[in-house]
Specification:
This is Transporter. Pfam families: bPH_11. Keywords: Membrane, Transmembrane, Transmembrane helix. There is one protein chain. This protein has 2 domains: 42 residues; 109 residues, PH-domain like (Roll). The strands form 2 sheets. The chain has a 7-stranded antiparallel β-sheet with strand order 4-3-2-1-9-8-5, with helices on one face. The chain has a two-stranded antiparallel ribbon with strand order 6-7. A hairpin with a 2-residue loop joins strand 6 and strand 7. It contains 2 helices and 9 strands, in the order αβββββββββα. The protein is α+β, with helices and mostly antiparallel strands and 166 residues long.
Amino acid sequence: MNSGTLVGSLIFAAVLVVLLAVAIHLMMRGWRRRAERQTDLIGTLPAMPDEVGAASVTTRGLYCGCTIAPEWNDRVAVGDLGYRSKAVLTRYSTGILLERIRAQPIWIPESSIVAIRTERGIAGKVVSRHGILVIRWRLPSGTEIDTGFRADNRDEYVQWIEEEAA
């Protein structure tokens, strides 16, 4: 390789690195601005009650994130609600507990639940038909959000939907 080709290759590589750094910076700034816009809309999440009773359904899987209803792709960026993680979803008579790895648990009071259904996708996670369990619920601020959960065993969705219908 002659020196002209080497210099040209190094300049090209440096320009690529700078462009990549700018793109990452702009994406992070966009995520922070989205979180700032949503802060008042989301408000504070409901607190976990002292007693929840006996669990009726428990499912392991992946927490896919929350979106502002009814937009399935408008991901919530406030706090850690927008980050995917492994989780356990448990139904109690007083509500639903979503325990996430390396994130705060989410408590969904029974009185806040609007609907439980299956969907093909939520927040950039698209899977096969009826692949994601979606819980629509109302926050204390009055905003409705959808919380997506992909179970390890999708046959367990029937229990969640039947429990909601009962």
